[in-house]
Structure formats: C-alpha cells, structure tokens
Amino acid sequence: METPTLFICLYIICLSVFGLSTAADTLSSGQSMKDGEKLVSTGQSFELGFFSPGNSKNRYFGMWYKISPETVVWVPNRDKPLTDSHGFLTFSHDGDLVLVNQSKSVVWSSNLSRVVKNPVAQLLDTGNLVLRENSSLNCDDYRWQRFDHPSDTLLPGMKLGWDVKIGFERCLTSWKSKDDPFPWRLYFQVEH
Ligand SMILES: *[C@@H]1O[C@H](CO)[C@@H](O)[C@H](O)[C@H]1NC(C)=O
Ligand SMILES: *[C@@H]1O[C@H](CO)[C@@H](O)[C@H](O)[C@H]1NC(C)=O
Ligand SMILES: *[C@@H]1O[C@H](CO)[C@@H](O)[C@H](O)[C@H]1NC(C)=O
C-alpha cells in the first residue's frame, strides 16, 4: 500500500472510531445540541437531530431510523419550522426540553407540568425520547416521553387515544407533503 493511501485509510478509521465514541444518547442539563449534532440510541436504531425534508430549505428537529434517515418518525416543530440552521435544543430553567431559534425564542417545548431540577433527556432504542431527573436515571419514572406525542408514525410500545394521566388525546396526523411535515390530515384516531 502506498503511503498516501495508508494515511487516508488511517484517517477514515480514526474518523469512524471517533464518531462512534462521541455519538451520545443523552443530553443533560447545561448541555445543548446544535444543528448538525445528533443523538444516537445505544443500539444504533434511531437518531435525533436537525433536517430539511425533501426540497424544503426549512430546518426541523426530528427523529429517524439510523439506517434510513429519510424515514422520519417524529417532528416536534412540524408547524413551526426554523428558517436557518442556528436553532438548538436545550433545557429551560424549569427543566423543559426546548427548541430555540436564533433569536432565542422557544419554538417548541416539552411543556412539563412540574419543575425538573436536573433533567436528562435520553433517546431510547425503541424510538422513545424520555426526560427524567438525573437522580432517577435507571427508573421508568419519566417526567415526559415523546411516545405521548406521535407525529405520523406509530412505533411498537406507543399508544393512541385519550389518556387521563397526560390529559389529552394522542392521534396520528399525516404530513402536508413530503417537503412539509405540517400536520395535515388526521388519519388515525381511536373511536370512543
Ligand atoms: C448527574 O449528576 C451528576 C452530579 O451532578 C453528574 O456528575 C452526572 O454527569 C449527571 N449525569 C447525567 C447523565 O447528566
Ligand atoms: C424566532 O421566533 C420568534 C417567535 O416565533 C420570531 O418572532 C423570530 O423572528 C424568530 N427568529 C428567527 C431568527 O427566526
Ligand atoms: C402546556 O400544558 C398546559 C397544562 O399543563 C396546557 O394547558 C397548555 O395548553 C400546554 N401548552 C402547549 C403549548 O401544549
């Protein structure tokens, strides 16, 4: 092997090793996640980050299958796109997970009913994104979970319909078009 080729190979190996070791599945209080950064679930099933669907120039926050990034399963800001790539995800003072735009306006919030002092958000391999207190890291004591907020995709473990505990109805709504995840048609609602 010639020297330049060897160096390129080493470089690629370093990049992939470095990339793997830095891809975290959690965001802790005090941290933020910029456009271009990602969370990856431990089993490498799902990724969470910023994207532009189809031919759109808008930026959305979302979750997709790692092996198939075009298969987006969740978009929290589907009706409030970011117009540039200066948005970021972080925690508010109350421990809410918030998506913030360049002028520091909150575009989307997990809207918790109680304050969480030391929040940790973790992307699970099921496609759930859960928020809990740092002190209850290994419990299922979620203060918020994205499974309560479906977009247009039902994953195993998610439930639809009215829920007394969370106080609202979960339903699936289609995207307006492949370039726009705006909630368009209600296409799955549980009959009462
Ligand atoms: C939880 O809090 C401890 C003490 O503040 C800190 O060392 C640790 O990194 C935190 N863990 C996470 C996942 O944020
Ligand atoms: C951020 O959001 C606020 C409120 O929606 C809006 O008024 C402002 O123009 C946005 N800023 C940018 C840079 O998009
Ligand atoms: C936030 O939660 C409160 C109740 O906990 C609810 O009344 C309000 O509509 C929610 N806001 C959003 C934007 O979902």
Write up this protein.
With 192 residues, this protein is mostly beta strands. Helix content is 10%, strand content 37%. The chain has one helix at residues 3-22; strands at residues 26-28, 33-34, 39-40, 46-51, 60-65, 68-74, 88-91, 97-100, 106-109, 119-123, 129-133, 144-145, 161-163, 168-170, 172-177, 180-188. The strands form five sheets. The chain has a four-stranded antiparallel sheet, with no helix packed on it. It has a four-stranded antiparallel sheet with strand order 2-7-8-9, with no helix packed on it. The termini are far apart. Mean pLDDT is 88; it is low at 12-21. The site of one 2-acetamido-2-deoxy-beta-D-glucopyranose (NAG) has 5 residues, from loops. Pfam families: B_lectin (PF01453).
- What is the overall number of helices? 1
What average pLDDT do the residues reach? Answer: 88
Q: Unreliable segments (pLDDT under 50, ≥5 consecutive)?
A: 12-21
What kind of assembly state do the chains in view correspond to? single chain
What class would the helix/strand composition place it in? mainly beta
The ligands found in this model are: 2-acetamido-2-deoxy-beta-D-glucopyranose
Strand neighbour order, sheet with most strands = 1-10-11-12
Helix and strand arrangement:
Elements: H1 3-22, E1 26-28, E2 33-34, E3 39-40, E4 46-51, E5 60-65, E6 68-74, E7 88-91, E8 97-100, E9 106-109, E10 119-123, E11 129-133, E12 144-145, E13 161-163, E14 168-170, E15 172-177, E16 180-188
Antiparallel strand pairs: 1-10, 2-7, 3-4, 4-5, 5-6, 7-8, 8-9, 10-11, 11-12, 13-14, 15-16
Bound molecules: 2-acetamido-2-deoxy-beta-D-glucopyranose (NAG) (3 copies).
Residues 26, 28, 118, 120, 134 line the site of one 2-acetamido-2-deoxy-beta-D-glucopyranose.
